[in-house]
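Hello,

Our lab assistant flagged a job as stuck in the queue for most of the afternoon. It eventually completed. Since we weren't sure the result was trustworthy after the delay, we are filing this so someone can double-check. Below is the sequence as submitted and the structure that was eventually returned. Let us know if re-running is recommended.
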Amino acid sequence: MMNPGTCIRQQTEQQEYAILSPYAAKSAEATRVRPEEGCPIRTSYQRDRDRVLHSKPFRRLKHKTQVYIAPAGDHYRTRMTHSLEVAQICRTVGRALRLNEDLIEAIALGHDVGHTPFGHVGEQALAEIVGSFEHNRQSLRTFTVLTADGQGLNLTEAVLDGILHHTGDGKPNTLEGQIVRVGDRIGYLCHDFDDAVRAGYMSLTDLPGQVRDILGETSREMITSMTTDMIQASWQKPAIAMSPPVYAAMGEFRQVMFDKIYNSGLLLRERFKGKMIIRELFKYCRDNPGVLPEGFLRWADGDVVLAVTDYLAGCTDNHAISLFQEIFIPRSEYKLLNV
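-- returned structure --
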């Protein structure tokens, strides 16, 4: 009788070769910068998913802005709910195409850990201060340096590649990473639109007729339309694709969201506050590096600007606001000295 504790991982790896698409990434072929002994139960990509899920950077996403800073309500998306929703969307596509769902989930859950507090305005503030800041690159740095006391989580190269290339230049090497690159866009467009309607900033009539006709009129219909199209356009192909009409409609949808929400003046006041907090905290920490938590200067090899960037990028909205108040806002309570 076999001991399941010593053969489950190997059985799973063998099943992947038998069941998954020839184009799928196989767990048995996963590589890490620092080789490790295999887990008796979990594959390499399962271990990566678990490492991301249990990490502090992932937990902090629950208090990081997706679009709306300090929204008046509990039902608006945060970076964490966005990441969970992207993972679900992408796993649906991956399962249909018989790709590696564990790899997809690891990439999707970890893709946004490098995002700053206050959403993209925090990212813009840091970019203006230090010259260049991209959240995907910060996500990579988070998992390779800023965890486990500077050792990183030693994630597989396929997961790191998918996280790095989920946006910006370049394309992921795996189809699983390519799914997350497209699925991330599907997720934030549909769910940010849903939140915008809830907030009263948009209505269905703001979407062009072509977008509504091709993608649908609710976030559920839109997600279904785009994921179904991805599956059909990518079926038994060595790359993830979309049909020209759906891809064009998604692009038009994205432009409307940038015009109406992402770059609009509707949230200008709150975004100004978030940007100002990041700027002032950066100046203070740069001039007073002793306030940085232990480790950041060491992980940055003494580079104060890099250390401050790492620290502030990892802050939640709540922590950044609290830190700003502690440093810059006088306390209202004080005791009179006896004279």
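-- support follow-up --
The delay was a queue issue, not a problem with the job. The result is valid. The chain is about 60% helix and 0% strand. The mean pLDDT is 94.
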